[in-house]
Hints:
Layout: H1 15-49, H2 65-90
Amino acid sequence: MLNLAGTPPLVPMPEVVSRRLIAADLCLLISQIETSMRRIATAMDQEHGSDQEGSADVFVLDDVTPRYVTASAALDACRAGLGHALQCLSEPGSAV
Length: 96
């Protein structure tokens, strides 16, 4: 959890500048989430790519994939929420 006790107070600024800064922060967060989702997909592909298909003697116990899928779904929900926040921020007449 963030500790904001030692953080200096924010400097007042015009509403337009404030909205742009908030929008930039939201876009950065969305980008970071998308990067994490791509990394999860890559990790899943690498794990499944190492399987030796065609061998009847090989059994793969996949206990990692459900965690990846759950993490990816959570990130997708975060991305959707941030996208909605960004959309609300850009609507005319919205108060920030």
